[in-house]
Amino acid sequence: MNKNIEISIVIPLFNEDESLPELHDWIVRVMKENNFTYEVIFIDDGSKDKSWAVIEELRGRNENVKGIKFQRNYGKSAALQKGFEMAIGDYVVTMDADLQDSPEEVPPMIEMMKDQDLDLVSGWKKKRYDPLSKTIPTKLYNWTARRLTGIHLHDFNCGLKVYKSAVVKSIEVYGDMHRYIPPLAKYAGFSSIGERVVQHQARKYGTTKFGLNRFLNGPLDLLSVVFMGKFGKKPMHFFGAIGTLLFIIGFGFAIYLGVDKTVSLFSGNPAPLLAQRTEFFVALTAMIIGAQFFLAGFVAEMIGRNSSSRNVYLIEKTLE
């Protein structure tokens, strides 16, 4: 098989046996029309239907098809991570397996990446065929993500994206971080990020695989990404700064109380006991919390410098 691959298309899936043949044929047609050398990597995230059998059948008639089958369902982020590790193309494309992402969008996105020398091009489904219960939270989420990350994308969670190979080889996607690959790329040093309006196809088969928990997990993961991106390698800069500030505030109150008590004693004016003054408890609380923040930063620094663990996903089968 030719190893000079221009495009690796990574497709995570869970129970999508109905859509896979049509998606495969659509991709092949687009790749041939544009004379791309390519590979299609299907990652079966523990499907309970016939998805893996379909992938094996597709591989039997197209050697450009590769596959990974997880022993159980790990989630989209895990599937993307293993797909990124397997990909050997100069450009890596991600898309969903439900036919809502059009392969026809890939060539112009790659052309845009080349013309503007971008590291990443994200799709923007400007017109969506989703219910209001999904579109309204999505707009709020995207607005928040833009403010916190400084990346001006309208659709962070669009599954259709194109990356330079170096980008996906430099990041690790875990948990539910598939929503935040652009921030992960930015914090890894790839800040040339573009966006292109793409067509959103109405779902043809099956149902969505994401439940209401995404409305809770999404914001929490966003905070994690922003924090890890800014302070992951230097947690003491965050915890230590807060701890030092609180300790200084508390110590300042303590000095004030000491001076005030001393002045009262020498002037002969009666003064209340320190334990009866509100400032005493403010000073004590601030110094204790400040010390705890500082120690938390110190411990985080030690853990970060000595930890080299990675996530382990059990793979049942592989087609290469």
What would your notes on this structure say?
The chain folds into 2 domains: 7-231, Spore Coat Polysaccharide Biosynthesis Protein SpsA, Chain A; 235-306. An 8-stranded mixed beta sheet has the order 7-5-6-4-1-2-3-8, with helices on both faces. The radius of gyration is 26 Å and the shape is elongated. The chain is of the alpha/beta class. α1 (20-33) links the parallel β1 and β2 (38-44). α5 (132-149) packs parallel to α8 (214-231), α7 (181-187) packs parallel to α8 (214-231) and α9 (235-267) runs antiparallel to α10. It has 10 helices and 8 strands. The chain has helices at 20-33, 51-61, 76-86, 106-116, 132-149, 165-168, 181-187, 214-231, 235-267, 278-306, and strands at 7-13, 38-44, 65-70, 91-94, 120-124, 161-164, 193-197, 315-319.
Explain the layout of strands and helices.
Elements: E1 7-13, H1 20-33, E2 38-44, H2 51-61, E3 65-70, H3 76-86, E4 91-94, H4 106-116, E5 120-124, H5 132-149, E6 161-164, H6 165-168, H7 181-187, E7 193-197, H8 214-231, H9 235-267, H10 278-306, E8 315-319
Parallel strand pairs: 1-2, 1-4, 2-3, 5-7
Antiparallel strand pairs: 3-8, 4-6, 5-6
Helix pairs in contact: 5-8, 7-8, 9-10
The total domain count is 2
Counted beta strands: 8
In N-to-C order, the SSE pattern is EHEHEHEHEHEHHEHHHE
Runs in which pLDDT lies below 50 for 5 or more consecutive residues are none
CATH topology category name of the largest domain:
Spore Coat Polysaccharide Biosynthesis Protein SpsA, Chain A
Largest beta sheet: strand ordering: 7-5-6-4-1-2-3-8
How does the helix and strand content classify structurally? Answer: alpha/beta
Question: What name goes with the CATH superfamily of the largest domain?
Answer: Spore Coat Polysaccharide Biosynthesis Protein SpsA, Chain A
